[in-house]
Design brief:
CATH class: Alpha Beta
Order of helices and strands: EHEHEHEE
Structural class: alpha/beta
CATH topology: Beta-carbonic Anhydrase, Chain A
Strand order of the largest sheet: 2-1-3-4-5
Largest sheet: 5 strands, mixed
Shape: globular
Distance between the termini: 40 Å
CATH superfamily: Carbonic anhydrase
Strand content: 15-25%
CATH architecture: 3-Layer(aba) Sandwich
Helix content: 25-40%
């Protein structure tokens, strides 16, 4: 039987190159160097079905305990519909869906502003 690899969590972000450095720096501090899985998906959590599949895999293969979901300002995948209110509503909805599927996970959601500020969404 294969050995199960365990890491502290999964971070789901957008692919947008403008945010990669600040996200990397934040994750190193918040998650620990190399102690997390990461999914970079166009639109962050915009495709919730695809994101949930990735969460399922990370739970199964790496026994994660924490999930970080991040969307950002000026997201091309969202286009004109990508208002702050829409991002917040989507983050909350995906968090709710994942909590139903994986109640053992601690799920945190963030909206990243163009100036690099991470806004925690409750």
């Amino acid at each position: 039987m294969a050995h199960k690899h365990i890491c502290s969590g999964l971070v789901v972000t957008c692919i947008d190159f403008r945010f990669q450095k600040i996200i990397e720096d934040w994750m190193q501090i918040y998650m620990g160097e190399g102690k997390y899985d990461r999914v970079a998906w166009a639109g962050g959590i915009f495709d919730s079905v695809g994101v949930i599949k990735q969460v399922d895999i990370s739970v199964r293969l790496h026994d994660i305990k924490k999930l970080i979901l991040m969307n950002h300002e000026d997201c091309g995948a969202y286009g004109k519909s990508g208002t702050h209110a829409r991002h917040c509503a989507d983050l909350k909805e995906v968090k709710k869906k994942i909590a139903q599927l994986h109640p053992q996970l601690k799920v945190e959601t963030y909206f990243i502003h163009l100036d690099g500020v991470f806004e925690k969404i409750e």
